[in-house]
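Work Package 4 report. The design task specified in the project plan requires that, given a folded chain encoded as structure tokens, an amino acid be chosen for each position. We show below one input record used in the internal validation round.
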């Protein structure tokens, strides 16, 4: 065998060996691919008679549902407004403690023979209390005449003279009742299909019984929205059903503040969720809902405005006209801060021209000697003071009674 043949034989042998090895590897992989999955153990069944065993044909009872405790709902109890007699007694005592005007006058008048300086001090005291020039002159004349004619120096007699004169000037004969009787059906309002003074199309009245309506007006900072809430309490205490209208759409917190007052005594509030909405529309909707619900009184709050802002005052006039599309406005109450003195007079005059106010609410009358504004504003406008506010409490608002007011001033 030559060398070439030997080499060929060796190569063939090598190739044969490689083929055998490759075949063995492939065969091993195929066995792995088809290998059976491991056998899983069967679950152990409970023995018959055990607690876990379930009879054949019966299902296991469903699991008890987990009880989730519901959150407790806290119901805020409604407040019971203070009765009128109790309110009047408490406020009378509070006003007496702040009666600087009467105490000063009585201390001067009981000195005996009054000198020109004494009479000048009396006059200054009256003017500082915002009684006004003309009423002050009348009081001075009456005191001079009666003390001289009677020749009295008795403090009690002097007090009686001063009391009589103050009651006369406060004018006890004025009608101070709050008119909350419902207007007659179809009273006032705008005829169907007609337009009001603003050119807006008027809606048709329902022809049913409308609630009495009260429009509250005043400048900024007099406590007007708070007074609306307190007035609602007065009405609720008298057994009236009340609905409030939040027509102060310029002050973001006004509607929320009014809602809080209403919730305390179970009174709903009609409001717009859009800041800067048309206040006349809110007032109209309040009267409309009041009619549909059959409430006794609707009280409408308005934004505070300065009396020298013609545009805002015109808007106030529009609010009243829109309310009157359905029924006449029963009351227009001007809220005045007693501490503003004679400046309050100028405010009152402008509001009276625009809205025709029917009554005045004097706030912040405690802690001030400016109670004489009662005399001045009534003399100037011929409009009665109907309510006075004497504190920050929820029930610190009461009807104005001239005799009680004068007695409290004199102490």
């Amino acid at each position: 065998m030559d060398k070439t043949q030997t080499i060929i034989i060796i190569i063939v042998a090598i190739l044969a060996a490689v083929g055998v090895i490759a075949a063995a590897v492939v065969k091993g992989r195929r066995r792995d691919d088809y290998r059976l999955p491991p056998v899983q153990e069967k679950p152990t069944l409970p023995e018959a008679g055990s607690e876990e065993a379930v009879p054949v044909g019966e299902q296991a009872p469903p699991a008890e549902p987990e009880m989730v405790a519901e959150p407790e709902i806290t119901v805020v109890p409604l407040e019971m407004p203070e009765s009128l007699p109790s309110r009047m007694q408490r406020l009378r005592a509070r006003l007496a403690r702040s009666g600087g005007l009467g105490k000063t006058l009585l201390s001067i008048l009981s000195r005996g023979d009054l000198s020109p300086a004494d009479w000048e001090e009396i006059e200054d005291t009256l003017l500082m209390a915002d009684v006004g020039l003309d009423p002050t002159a009348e009081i001075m004349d009456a005191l001079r005449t009666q003390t001289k004619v009677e020749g009295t120096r008795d403090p009690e007699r002097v007090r009686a003279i001063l009391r009589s004169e103050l009651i006369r000037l406060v004018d006890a004969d004025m009608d101070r009742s709050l008119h909350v009787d419902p207007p007659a059906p179809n009273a006032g309002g705008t005829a169907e299909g007609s337009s009001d003074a603003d050119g807006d199309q008027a809606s048709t009245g329902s022809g049913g019984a409308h609630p009495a309506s009260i429009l509250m007006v005043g400048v900024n900072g007099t406590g007007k929205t708070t007074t609306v809430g307190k007035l609602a309490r007065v009405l609720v205490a008298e057994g009236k059903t009340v609905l409030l209208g939040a027509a102060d759409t310029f002050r973001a917190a006004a509607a929320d503040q009014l809602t809080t007052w209403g919730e305390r005594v179970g009174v709903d509030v009609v409001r717009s969720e859009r800041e800067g909405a048309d206040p006349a529309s809110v007032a109209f909707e309040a009267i409309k809902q009041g009619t549909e619900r059959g409430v006794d009184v609707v009280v409408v709050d308005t934004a505070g405005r300065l009396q020298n802002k013609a545009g805002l005052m015109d808007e106030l006039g529009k609010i009243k006209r829109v309310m009157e599309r359905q029924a006449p406005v029963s009351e227009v109450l001007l809220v005045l801060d007693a501490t503003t003195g004679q400046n309050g007079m100028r405010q009152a005059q402008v509001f009276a021209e625009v809205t025709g106010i029917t009554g005045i609410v004097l706030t912040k009358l405690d802690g001030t000697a400016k109670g004489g504004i009662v005399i001045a504003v009534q003399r100037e406008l011929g409009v009665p003071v109907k309510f006075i506010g004497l504190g920050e409490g929820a029930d610190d608002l009461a009807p104005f009674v001239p005799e009680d007011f004068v007695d409290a001033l004199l102490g």
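The longest strand covers residues 331-337. Validation will be extended to a larger panel in the next phase.
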